[in-house]
Amino acid sequence: MQTDRTLILGLIETCREVIAAHADHLCELDRAIGDGDHGTNMRRGCDAVYVDRDRLSGMPLAQALEKIGLTLVMNIGGASGPLYGTLLIEMGRKLGSNAHKTNFAAIVGEAIDAVARRGRSQEGDKTLLDVLYPVHTEMVRQSALVRIADTAKESAQLTAGMRAMRGRASFLGDRSIGHVDPGASSCALLATAICHYLKEYRPA
Fold it and tell me: Please, are residues 90 and 114 in contact by the beta-carbon 8 Å criterion?
């Protein structure tokens, strides 16, 4: 349980810090093709999780993931809350079921598919899925954490060449091309920060 507590606290703090540091940039990206509040919304969600960190870190990892997902749904505005929330809720449920206890990549893959269903999106639609699916591919390959982080960053940048097919950005049509998707960018920031944290993490 102490191992879970240290890991959960570390991940909560790491995610909050990276979003706070890049919130203005995320809003700037969102102003180009959306409402301009993605960074603000993400920061609000991460702050809400941080406030509850002591209670969350006292839970088993599976339960904590579900609770964090619910907190994000309740506190992040727009489509991002339900999408990030679904990812974590499904990960928590799958991890808690013990069905794939020894295959975390399978858990993540099923959770990403749940996000795709929730958002009625697929890879190539210029969403956070364009980061999640490539990251999952690297996880299945058992790539090094540094490689997974690089893939996340590269994949977010590739969304600039895509035409948005979902959300407010889709109304821009071809004018959405040339802009990095803010959801993909926040997803890459979080994935990269998590990879860097896990690389240094040493269970007690």
Answer: yes
